[in-house]
């Protein structure tokens, strides 16, 4: 049965990690990852998480099956984070939330549910997008196309082209939108541009699917939810996938959620019943630990405050690395203007480095970046940033 199985192409980012692991140079730096590291180059275990875990360990709860959609306390916490506690949508029973296996799992159960609702729809993702969006929706059976997004000339969003494209889509088309901290470019929409996107979705009858994997990494929990809240106040129906991998530094626990915004209580009950069938036939119900920790932190004022401070610490450190990199590149005599790096948001920057420059960074310096020129600012720290700035200045010198 396996004789004709072909070798699948290597995941470009995981392949990069393998190359990095095999590199024996002491000064090597991996900027290809999508993970937040602290200034010591370690993935942090947040103090709020540690406290919640300690309390849980002491309580030693039984490990029965969870509800198919996950625990109510977790799902309510997710909704409050997305829309703000007490939002009308929540009070009106218009938000259906199910815990999911990370942001990826949320996208997957959303995609499988959408396939049942609208099997012939095309899915539109930004050009470029997180590398898993296309394959994930294709594997759910959809045709996937791009809408214009990044403008290499301005290193920002070509919003005129994006808007024109959305306004040309057929009714029922599914549009995947990065709610904040666009991966891989770091280029986000302004609030007024989001307002235009909401209106384009309304005008064309599109199905918005917001992906929020970095809430709190740009400006803060509330400001980073601006797109979700504009959609929330629009009266439209839409999907939101949440990930807590980064914001709680719980990558391997696989904590996320899918929220679906409906027309009202009755619709919510029907939607939830169908979503539960999707989950039940997939992995039955979510694991306990990660969701319990996130719910415990979000639902305790003391732990929540601690988490917000730690999240702000991660956000501020990335910002410092951005401005420090720009300053150091200039000091190293870089001939290009890299000031755009401080305007980009979240963990990533599309640096504009060419494939040849990325290759030179790897071959000559042991610095690994994605071949598209994407680097992770959260992999920089006070010990490696001088070396990285010197290397980038050297490989980009005209
Ligand atoms: N969406 C985007 C835009 C992402 O960048 C990521 C993770 N890198 C995800 C979804 C998936 O998140 P998770 O690891 O929680 O599955």
TrEMBL record:
GO terms for biological process: L-phenylalanine biosynthetic process from chorismate via phenylpyruvate. InterPro entries: Aminotransferase_I/II_large, Asp_trans, NHTrfase_class1_PyrdxlP-BS, PyrdxlP-dep_Trfase, PyrdxlP-dep_Trfase_major, PyrdxlP-dep_Trfase_small. GO terms for molecular function: identical protein binding; L-tyrosine-2-oxoglutarate transaminase activity; pyridoxal phosphate binding. It comes from the Bacteria. Residues 27-392 form the Aminotransferase class I/classII large domain. It holds the Pfam family Aminotran_1_2. Its EC number is 2.6.1.-. Belongs to the class-I pyridoxal-phosphate-dependent aminotransferase family. Homodimer. This is Aminotransferase. The lineage of its organism: Bacteria, Pseudomonadati, Pseudomonadota, Betaproteobacteria, Rhodocyclales.
């Amino acid at each position: 049965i396996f004789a004709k199985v072909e070798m699948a192409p290597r995941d470009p980012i995981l392949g990069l990690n393998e190359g990095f692991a095999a590199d024996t140079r002491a000064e090597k730096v991996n900027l290809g990852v999508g993970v937040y590291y602290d200034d010591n180059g370690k993935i942090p275990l947040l103090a709020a998480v540690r406290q919640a875990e300690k309390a849980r360990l002491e309580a030693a709860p039984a490990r029965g099956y969870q509800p198919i959609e996950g625990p109510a306390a977790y799902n309510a916490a997710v909704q409050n984070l997305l829309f703000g506690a007490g939002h009308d949508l929540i009070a009106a029973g218009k938000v259906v939330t199910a815990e999911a296996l990370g942001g990826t799992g949320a996208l997957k159960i959303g995609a499988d549910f959408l396939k049942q609702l609208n099997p012939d729809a095309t899915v539109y993702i930004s050009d470029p997008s997180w590398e898993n969006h296309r394959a994930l929706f294709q594997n759910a059976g959809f045709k996937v196309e791009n809408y214009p997004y990044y403008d290499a000339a301005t290193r920002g969003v070509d919003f005129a082209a994006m808007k024109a494209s959305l306004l040309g889509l057929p009714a029922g088309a599914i549009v995947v939108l990065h709610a904040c901290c666009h991966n891989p470019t770091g280029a986000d929409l302004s609030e007024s541009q989001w307002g235009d996107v909401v209106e384009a979705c309304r005008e064309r009858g599109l199905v918005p699917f917001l992906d929020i994997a970095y809430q709190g990494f740009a400006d803060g929990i509330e400001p980073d939810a601006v797109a979700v809240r504009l959609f929330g106040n629009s009266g439209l129906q839409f999907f939101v996938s949440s990930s807590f991998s980064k914001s709680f530094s719980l990558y391997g626990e696989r904590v996320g959620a899918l929220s679906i915004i409906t027309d009202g209580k009755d619709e919510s009950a029907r939607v939830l019943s169908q979503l539960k069938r999707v989950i039940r036939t997939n992995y039955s119900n979510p694991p306990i630990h990660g969701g319990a920790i996130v719910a415990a932190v979000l639902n305790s004022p003391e732990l929540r405050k601690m988490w917000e401070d730690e999240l702000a610490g991660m956000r501020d450190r990335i910002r410092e690395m951005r401005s420090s990199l720009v300053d150091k590149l200039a000091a190293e005599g870089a001939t290009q203007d890299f000031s755009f790096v401080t305007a980009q948001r979240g963990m990533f920057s599309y640096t504009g480095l060419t494939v040849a420059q990325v290759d030179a960074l790897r071959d000559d310096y042991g610095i690994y970046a994605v071949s598209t020129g994407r680097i992770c600012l959260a992999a920089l720290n006070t010990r490696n940033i001088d070396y990285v700035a010197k290397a980038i200045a050297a490989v980009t010198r005209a």
